[in-house]
Amino acid sequence: MAVSRTLHLAGLPQADHPIASVRVLNGGHAEQHEEHRYGSRLPQLWWVFFGRRWVPLPLQFFLIEHRDGLVLFDTGIDPAIMSDTRYIKQAVGRFLLPRIFQLHVTEKDRVDHVLAARGVAASDIRTAIISHLHFDHVGGIAQIPQAKLLVSDREWSILHEPNPEREWILREHIEIPSANWQQIAFEPTDDPLFEGFDGIYDVAGDGSMILLPTPGHTVGSISMLIRQGGWDPILLVGDLTYEAGLLDQDILPGTGDKGMLLASFAKVRRLRDRLPDLAVIASHDFAAEKTVARAMGRASKR
Questions:
Q1: Is 261 in contact with 246 (CB distance < 8 Å)?
Q2: How many Å from the N-terminal Cα to the C-terminal Cα in the chain?
Q3: Alpha helices (runs of H) in the chain, residue ranges in sequence order
Q4: Which of 3, 27, 254, 299 could form a disulfide with 59 if both were Cys (CB 3.0 to 4.6 A apart)?
Q5: Mapping DSSP to helix (H, G, I), strand (E, B) and coil, where does residue 226 land?
């Protein structure tokens, strides 16, 4: 049974440094329709087939160096999607993919190779937080069989619904024998910092990495709040938005549940009101690396 607990993260002592770094990792790039990124009043199938303006889409994930071990926030895309004609089993999916994304991914963009280029062995990853189950966020799980894969129980339930592949959740690349999945449930808290959110999940038990439900892109999408003494707080929001600046304007992406997205946008803005220095980081935002560096760099100025 979930128990209520108060974390009072605002009082996290600066002498306590559970996290050494947060790094943005580049797993290739792609292009998406402008309507996909910035929304449109036109039906989705219209811009999928007739949209002509493509905009760049970085494929990014994140490495957190915690004192208890290395943590990934998402695992990038599997380059096999470019070479294996049966990677997507459903014919309709193979037909639609190049009409939704123009992918530019090579073997060097696989999670283990990306990590190695940064001096990290994939075998050293202890935990991977999966923001949601779309193929470009779970593509590296086969390369980290030793890691716990944390996913919200609501997101996992999509696998038991009819045809999750229609939502680009590819069951055959998720339910693999080597994957160490762990479903998480959000616990209630009386910490006023998280008022409005449907519970929290403390990854390490020390208040430094807090998972929050932010549905909309998918029904079980999650974000992660990173608190480290001396830094600005960082909120990794996955694909809640494609650019952090769009949150203030309620500019919704072209996919997802609009009602859920608007509600999650509002919750993130209220969190930022309580944490005025909060750095919001979207996974497909070109500004991600600079924003993370700026948040971490504040420590040297204090």
A1: no
A2: 41
A3: 34-38, 44-50, 80-83, 91-100, 111-117, 135-138, 153-156, 258-274, 288-297
A4: 27
A5: strand
**Nearest in space to 215 (alpha carbons), one of 274, 273, 132, 290:** 132
CA distance 160 to 169: 11
- The residue length of the chain stands at 302
Query: What would the pLDDT profile of 223-253 be if each residue is shown by its tens digit?
Result: 999 999 899 999 999 999 999 999 999 999 9
123-134 residue pLDDT tens: 999 999 999 999
Supply 193's token pair: 């910092």
pLDDT at residue 101 in the model = 97
Q: What angle do CA 274, 193, 4 make, to 5 degrees?
A: 175
Q: Is 62 helix (H, G, I), strand (E, B) or coil?
A: strand
d(CA 91, CA 111): 27
In whole angstroms, how far apart are CA 296 and each of 20, 62, 66, 299?
10, 14, 14, 6
Neighbours of 273 (CB within 10 A): 9
Spell out the domains of the chain, with CATH numbers in brackets. 15-301 (3.60.15.10)
Handedness of CA 225, 268, 59, 80 (dihedral sign): positive
Residue 182, beta-bridge partner list: 150
Query: Cα 260 vs. chain centroid, distance in angstroms?
Result: 17
> Which residues make Cβ contacts (< 8 Å) with residue 126, sequence separation at least 6?
68, 69, 70, 71, 146, 147, 148
pTM: 0.93
The tokens describing 28, both together, are 């290739």
